Amino acid sequence: MNRSLSSNRKILNILLRKGKRKNTSPRFGYFILYAFLYKYLSDKLKNHLIECIEGNETDLEMFYMTEEGIQDLREWALNDLGYFIESHSAYIDRFISDKFIEDIFSPEFFTILRDNIVFAPNNPAQDYFNRITEILKGEIRFYRFGFDEDLNSFMSNYLFTLSKFDIGEKNFTYAQVYDVIASSRQIRMSTTPEYISNLITSIVKSQKNIIGDAYDPFMKDGSILFKLYGDYPLSRVCGKEDNELYYYYSLIRAFIEDVDFTNISLYEENAIKSMAVDSRLFDVIASKVPNRFNDYSRLALKSQSIEIPHEGKSDFKEALLSNFDMDKLSDDDEALKALKVLEEKYYEIEKKQMVSFTGEYESLSDSEFLFLINMINSLREDGIMLVSLSQNFLFKSSLALLRKFLTYENNYIDAVISLPEELGRSVRPEVIILFRKDKRNDDIVFIDLSKKYGAVPSENAFPGLFKRNLILDDATTDKIIDAINNRRAVDKFSEIVSIRDLMKNDFNLAVSRYVDTYDGEFIRLKDLVNDKKMIDKEMDRLNTKINVLLDDLNIR
Questions:
Q1: 503 falls in which pLDDT band (50, 70, 90)?
Q2: How many angstroms separate the Cα of 339 from the Cα of each of 315, 343, 345?
Q3: Mind listing the pLDDT tens digit for each residue in 321-344?
Q4: Mean pLDDT of the region 424-453
């Protein structure tokens, strides 16, 4: 990637400098993100329509001057892109050129696209666009700052600069620009670290050649979900996010990433309250679980319940109990016996849903991490789950019973990876845990990256924006994947630990307990005892000699 040739980087640098000179209200993040969407939809459509009319003697503006021309443009746009802007004056470059620079930041900037965009019939993108504009409408309070000329001038100049980005640039893409802005002080979003999302998606790719459905219940900025979407031809992608700004950001990112909205479902919901998505089961669940649950109320944590989705169960019940003509079958003993077997199977399925913890595991219903069980229950039988968690989960005494349930009782945990403290932006380094629904190995792979890892600068790095711009290099990622897939123990890097050994340690999953990364010289306790005995013996000999000398000198 030739950064020196990137015009987007130069414009981004200007925007970041502008942001340093002005303290704006947090709600301006909504305005800036929306401007990115407006710019993208406007330029994408304009570029496409210019290609469509190439060879004609008239330009795009001339086409908009006749009803026949508008009809042609509308047909091309709706068929190819699924949306159309009805008025030429609603394109962002035209809107800005018609305004004085100081007057760009006005209520009209946030309504003109909404009032002129139309979507193809049954295009699900319209629902998500409507949700974006609804959220934006709730944040716009122009009466509070409409008369602040200094602020209006700043924001108008900011939007004018933003409109200069090239959405088609390859050196530093428009999506990368969007990500950098989100992490800047202008938006103040705490995005998922790239080294975590990269490692999670790399492990997924090593485990699954084909994925039908993927789910991120704590979507945040959606980086893990969108990486999976880019790597696999997924039939369905689902995500949940309770924080409005992050949800809003992810919806706009979905447009910028050109996702097929028929295959994606994004919900503004609290996943802890309900992990299930329409009783759907998933091939992969991948997520960075929040280290703190400030955005997920303690009340929600305490009101969790066990959920076990069974896709298609209600259809089976309806077919079994409603679609048969029992009068016609009353004389058919074989058919009645078969129906009885089917009915018993249905009730077995229902019984499996009635889960309650009894005896030793009764207190699990109050666990703050009960949602992990619900996440696993949302997997298909051959599904996998990768989550990034706080290290507290590994050794916190109140979670010992949950760890026992996930290991000894169900054998779900396949690997535990401690991440390098140097790469993280938090005080406590995190871990990534691989769960497998159909796990057969009676052991767990523990991997410690505290000493042996390689890192390289991220391609998304922007100097001065982040304290750390590093991600794990390919060699380290390959080494992690090899240790997991081949159950490989590597000195000072990985260890294979049996469930029996976990029991001896009260199901403590701290990686440092199982992977020895000490580089110094080991001294055996027995050698220390022998050395002490020799030193004590020598001291006794010296004391005796000193006493003899003192007697000879009559000194006492």
A1: very high
A2: 16, 6, 10
A3: 566 665 666 666 777 777 777 766
A4: 86
Residues 229 and 375 in one domain: yes
Kindly give the interhelix angle for 28-52 and 67-80, rounded to the nearest 10 degrees. Answer: 110
Burial call 428-451: b when 16+ CB within 10 Å, e when fewer:
ebbbbbbbbbebeeebbbbbbbbe
Same domain, 180 and 329: no
Same domain, 288 and 384: yes
Single out the residue of 472, 465, 476, 474 nearest to residue 196, CA to CA.
472
Tell whether 15 and 164 lie within a shared domain: yes
Sign of torsion, CA 423 425 429 430?
negative
List Cβ neighbours of 464 (8 Å cut-off, separation of 6 or more).
16
Q: How far apart are CA 131 and CA 266, in angstroms?
A: 11
State the DSSP H helix or E strand holding residue 69, giving kind and residue range, or none if neither.
helix 67-80
Q: What is the pLDDT of residues 200-220, one digit of tens each?
A: 999 999 999 889 899 999 999
By DSSP bridging, strand 83-85 and strand 117-119 are antiparallel
pLDDT at residue 484 greater than cutoff 90: yes
Does any domain span residue 193? no
The dihedrals phi and psi of 30, each to the nearest 5 degrees, come to -65, -40
pLDDT at 32 over 60: yes
Give the whole-angstrom CA distance, residue 412 versus residue 440: 9
Give the mean pLDDT of the chain.
84
Residue 518 in any domain: the answer is: no
Residues 548 and 408 in one domain: no
Domain ranges, residue 160: 3-188
Other CB atoms within 10 Å distance of the CB of residue 538? 10
- State the virtual CA torsion across 358, 361, 367, 372 in degrees, nearest 10: -100
Rounded CA separation 544/139 (Å): 89
Residues 283 and 245 in one domain: yes
User: pLDDT tens-digit profile of 328-385?
Assistant: 666 667 777 777 777 666 655 554 544 567 778 877 877 778 899 999 999 999 999 9
pLDDT score for 309: 80
pLDDT exceeds 60 at position 128: yes
d(CA 166, CA 148): 31
Amino acid at 6: S
> What are the φ/ψ torsions at residue 352 (nearest 5 degrees)?
-65, -25
Comparing 375 with 148, the larger pLDDT belongs to 375
CB of 69 closer than 8 Å to CB of 120: no
Q: Is 146 left (phi over 0), alpha (psi -120 to 50) or beta?
A: alpha
Residues 297 and 238 in one domain: yes
Where are the alpha helices (H) located in 166-297, listed in sequence order? Answer: 174-183, 194-207, 223-231, 244-256
Number of domains in the chain: 4
